[in-house]
């Protein structure tokens, strides 16, 4: 089993140091839901299909994320509160290269 450390600031401005497993095929949205860092029904509304942007985060520290795919880019093109460092948590699959990732959960539309 392999774990990485991620720092997540929730929508209330509270910072959480999270330990996330890399061997469970989880994404950042699922980690946020697992740790209950966003109010129920306000994150992952589409179930992680890159169709709603409710799991949008702002990447503060990028230790090596995979490049953004076309679906993610298209969804962010239609989303609210988008910043240059926006990503969809459902598209960020937890991997060893993400050690030290820091994100802020974007406001819910």
From TrEMBL:
Signal peptide: none annotated. InterPro entries: 2Fe-2S_ferredoxin-like_sf, Adrenodoxin-like, Beta-grasp_dom_sf. SUPFAM superfamilies: 2Fe-2S ferredoxin-like. The keyword Iron-sulfur applies. Keywords: 2Fe-2S, Iron, Iron-sulfur, Metal-binding. The keyword Chaperone does not apply. This is Ferredoxin. It comes from Chryseobacterium kimseyorum.
